[in-house]
Amino acid sequence: MATYRGIHGKAIKSLSTDPSAETDAGQIWYNTTSNTFKSIVSSAAWVSSSNLNQSVYDNTGAGIQTAALNVGGTESPSVARSDNTEEYNGSGWTTSGNLNTGRFALGGFGTQAAAIVAGGNTSPGGGTTAATESYNGSVWTSLSAPSNLNTPRQYFNVAAVGTSTAGLLSGGTPPPPGTGVTEEWNGSAWAEQSDMSTARYAGATMGTQTAALYCGGDSGGTIKSEVEEYNGSSWTNSTSMPTTTANAYRVGNSTTDLYVAGGSTPSATTTTHKWDGTSWTTAGAMGRTATGSGGSAGGSSPTAGVAFGGSTPSPSISTTEEFNVSANVVTAAAWSAGGTTTTSKRGTFGAVNSTQTAGLIAGGYTTTFVTESEEYNGTTWTEGDNLNTARAYAACAGTQTAAAASGGTVSPPSGTPFPDQSNACEEYNGTSWSNNPNNLTQARERLGAGGTAGAGAFFGGYGTPPAQYFGLTEEFNGTSFSEGPDMGTAASNGTYCGETTEALLWAGGQTPSSVATTQEFDGSSWTTGGAMPEARHGQFAFGAQTSAISGGGYNPSITVNVIGYDGSAWSSRPSTATAGANAAAFGTASAGLRARGYTGTANSDTTEEWNGETTAANVKTLTQS
After folding, report:
1. Counting beta carbons within 10 angstroms of the beta carbon of residue 116, is it exposed (0 to 12), middle (13 to 18) or buried (19 or more)?
2. Is residue 616 situated within a structural domain?
């Protein structure tokens, strides 16, 4: 009789804790703590990710999971076709160069740096095109007439595959009930090849120019399950899918290892089907509401794909999901409700380097300026010692046990019609606030802060009279302030963070209009970083210069949008549950929070906690059946 040692060459290990490496997949061990046999197993699953910046359906895609491209589509049948292009980095989306001709139901293939799109619908109510465009990673170029499709058609957004110099596009419509027309792209022109046996559109193609599968589709209103295989010159019938499917997403680029997910049967479905070259089986279902007619990027790997946009079935959505076949379980980045603060306020400021489980906020505005401060333990807010000066829109460096706050808006002297700005500095030791006799040289509000209570920096802001925006940077050594290099652009009410004074970040804000500028400080000078996707002010932020999260604010209305910064570029992240501006925030890009703020109609007492994407070994307990 075969034994485990005989098969694997070693005995079953006895361990008190479970291994966590993906390389341990397939191994069996005995956990002496739980008294169970366990193993790490591989599984196929979809997990939600950051939304597209624009809701679209009948969009197309190209690239791989960590470098995908979303192109075109439409928000609804009655609006103009989209010329939008967005790039995905594995975490979020950023906008890029627009198509020269907005269109939906187009076909696309290639990589994020070198892609081709062709065909589609160019105007509400009609307008099928044969036009082809090429993408170089930033700009789309309309190719001249000899590069047009030989047969103008649409509805093949996942029926095109290949590279920018060797592509394949099949099916489509018109004419009804669809067409079997197949064309190959050689980098400069399209050439017609043998037609598919079944005329159809809205099917899914996987593979390359010389080896591809066309799966399902719609033929005159009848959803199909038929699969045809292309060998570079002709099509032959292959094993049909288990169910009729059209408008699906795809993962994989091999005719012997691929996935087809979602779409319509004709009712909307979340089912994922796997093809292993011989037969079809069912894999992990999509997590979103049943949907199809979107874009997808599966690249060369059948183990890592991404699907984006589509309909539910009403147009249109911005949802993104990643597909992974892995021995790790991926938990998507997400916001969740935290503890409610003791009162509702806006303009509250947080100690920027507090943590999600040990946080500090202070001040704010209700109908008057307040002195209250509160501490957070990861679950509950409790009231702490009061500030000595009631204020809002100040800035605070440090942590829950060692913080320094300065600046802000304060109540005016009696008879003065407008609030004043403060330069007063207060320090917190984890128990009480005390005044520091050395103040900022310039009184101002809506400024930024970073670093620690003993080595911090305060920068930017707004003051009166006369009304002006500041680029002034002042460094704090725990005792006194000294002037540092000015910001490149004077601004206030922006988003800011920084673990040290050698790596500060400021983005957006008012100058006086809202701006999208990002500025980085390295301890000696400010330089321009990657611009935000949209001009915004009054947003929150937490994290570090090379890994930050920012959200909310005005753009011009109050938003739920959240973006992340990787040290060079901003991209989308999952949105907050509620819109808010002028909230307090602190933490890291993997574990942070925002608290209070203004919703557009009222001050808020809510807290939302952010947890970044995590992976963990898919450990299973083995049982006898």
Report:
1. buried
2. no
Q: 577-615 pLDDT, tens per residue?
A: 999 999 999 999 999 999 999 999 999 999 999 999 998
In Å, what is the CA distance from 256 to each residue of 207, 210, 238? 9, 14, 12
Which domain-ending residue is among 289, 312, 332?
332
Number of domains in the chain: 3
- Cα–Cα distance between 442 and 424 in angstroms, integer? 10
118: how many CB neighbours lie within 10 A of its CB? 29
400 or 76, greater pLDDT: 400
Residue 337 lies in a domain: no
CATH number at residue 172: 2.120.10.80
Per the domain annotation, does 606 fall within a domain? Answer: yes
The number of C-alpha atoms within 13 Å of 85 and in the hemisphere containing its C-beta is 24
Tens-place pLDDT, residues 104-141: 999 999 999 999 999 999 987 668 999 999 999 999 99
Q: Given the structure tokens 């009162």, which residue do they identify? A: 343
DSSP letter for 285, please. P
Cα distance between residue 28 and residue 147, in whole Å = 57
Whether this prediction's pTM lies above 0.85 is answered by yes
Cα–Cα distance measured from residue 495 to residue 582, given in angstroms and rounded to the nearest whole number: 10
CB 461 within 8 A of CB 408: no
Residues 6+ apart with CB under 8 A from 424: 388, 389, 391, 406, 435, 439, 440
b (16+ CB within 10 A) / e for 593-603: bbbbbbbeeeb
Last residue of a domain, one of 332, 353, 372: 332
| Secondary structure letter of residue 566 according to DSSP | -
> CA torsion angle for 363, 365, 371, 377 (degrees, to 10)?
-40
Classify residue 597: in a domain, yes or no. Answer: yes
Q: Which of 56, 51, 136, 45 is nearest to 91 (CA)?
A: 51
User: What is the mean pLDDT of the segment spanning 178-207?
Assistant: 97
> Could you tell me the two tokens for 172?
């489509």
63 and 113 in a single domain? The answer is yes
Name the nearest CA neighbour of 563 among 67, 64, 89.
Answer: 89
Strands (E) across 186-287 are located at: 190-193, 204-207, 212-219, 222-230, 235-238, 249-254, 257-261, 272-275, 280-283
Q: Do 390 and 407 belong together in one domain?
A: yes
Q: How confident is the model at residue 315 (pLDDT cuts 50, 70, 90)?
A: confident
Q: Is the same domain home to 422 and 465?
A: yes
Instruction: From 369, 428, 318, 353, select the one nearest 84 (Cα to Cα).
Output: 318
**Strand, coil or helix: 414:** coil
Q: Which helix (H) or strand (E) holds 8?
A: helix 4-8
Residues 462 and 447 in one domain: yes
Tell the residue number behind the tokens 């082809």, with chain if given.
Answer: 132
Confidence of residue 3 (pLDDT cuts 50, 70, 90): low
Residues 322 and 369 in one domain: no
Question: What domain range is 277 assigned to?
Answer: 45-332
Q: Label residues 76-103 b or e (16+ Cβ within 10 Å = b).
A: eeeeebbbbbbbbbbbbbbbbbebebbb
**pLDDT, averaged across the chain:** 93
